[in-house]
Amino acid sequence: MEAIAHTPLVHPLSDAERQQFDGSGYLLLPGTVDPSTIKLMRSTLEKLLAPFAKDGEDFFQTCIRLNAEVSPALYQVYQVSHQTEAMGAMRRACLSQVHRYLGKHEGVLIDVDSHIIFGMPNSTRLTWGWHQESTYDVFDGKGFNFCVPIFEPASVHNGTMSFLKGTHRFGKLPFDKHKEHENGATTLVPKDIGRLQAEHEEVFFEAAPGDAVMFDRNLIHRSNLNRSERPRITAVIRFMEIQELPASFDKPY
Question: What is the total count of domains within the chain?
Answer without folding.
Answer: 1
